[in-house]
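Most newcomers find our protein records easier to grasp once they have seen one. The structure tokens are whole numbers drawn from a learned vocabulary of backbone shapes. The record below serves as our worked example for the rest of this section.
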Amino acid sequence: MRKTIFKKLETQGLIANYNRLRKNLPPRLPERIFIWDETFREGVKAPTVYLTYVERVKLAKLMDESGVSVINVGFPALSDDEKRNVSKIVNESFEQAKLTASAEPFKASIDACLECGIKEITLESPINGLNLQYRYKITKKQALQKIVESITYCKDHGAAVNFMLMDGTRTAIDDILQVFQQAAEAGVARLGLADSVGFIRPLSMKYLISHVRDGLSESIKKKIPMSIHCHNDFGLAASNTLAAMEEGVSYVHTCIAGFGERAGIAPFEEVVTATELLYNIDTGIDLGKISRISQTAEKAFALPIQFHKPIIGENIFAHEVEEDVEEMLAHPLVFEPFPPEIVGRETTVFIGRNTGQKLIQEMLEKAGIRASPRQMDELFRRVKGPHEGLDKGEAQMTYYQVKKLMKDLQKGYAMDEFWRMVEQVTRQKPKVTSDKKASTA
């Protein structure tokens, strides 16, 4: 359906589709895109979000059924609870998706994955000066050595390895090439680049990926696919993901509804739908399951999806009647980007306060109903009534009560609150200054 609907309109001369122009199709565009889901790694980083094991399995099974290629099931070294969840989900059966888990290039972190029975480990590490100096406090030479040793350790213990360069979009190209070359020689299955703080823009992403690809040897480019992981701090995660895809990246990291740390990462539904409908590239995803997956995630995360959210928001296929209904429905693509059925949705047309009285009268006449002026006034009053009769102050108060409840559900402890709690429990004062406590927060 996705391949024919727009082409048919083009052939009939009804629309112009610049996406299909040969000159607009990037030469390095992959023939197939693979969706790598990070919901259990990134999504659960949304403040104090907690998924029960049953919720994790339900979401993972839905992803598998929909055609997700890789599912990152978590970070076992994070906690005993996380490790138990990963161990249990590894024992579930999946038809299509491969499972991976994240680890840092340290033996204890890798062992946590191996003890869960994970057969594919994703090593995450930065190598730029900012992270090495302030986070790991090691040199670049030491970092590279740890990465190579960790890859070898994983493979020696029977696990395939993906390498993800954290903060890759703020790392010098020569350094990226150096670590990718060494990781490839050590035997990784995939090489990945992360825009960890969402700091790059699409044209810059294309520049970076193209120069990295040009700098890699032909054997590496042919044997080892690349992946991309984009955060949404500037609202560019989906755009940057597509920009990387245009330069040949075939594994794209996404999260359902774009949930995740801070502003989240590239939304699953946006990346998949854009890839399929705007690029005409197969992702292996059953688009009809997108709506169901997002609704399941919304419920599990207890985080509402914005009404105006692309693809899955309540408003995207909802239309208030402002002209003849028959004209509106003559061809839905007059006012919709694509048929909602493609992603498991449907068009909703409603009569609201912006629907004119004259239009309502015309609708009644077409339906064979003759209404007196008095009846029309009453009908129009009822149409507008829910809005005009609403106590806006009361509605706003309810809204802020719900918002406060959501904040309370998500809230952890600010650092000063945490140290006060430590002092109450241990009856010992922490040996940290207030400045340090504040900076940690």
Residues 434-441 have pLDDT under 50 and may be disordered. The chain is about 45% helix and 10% strand.
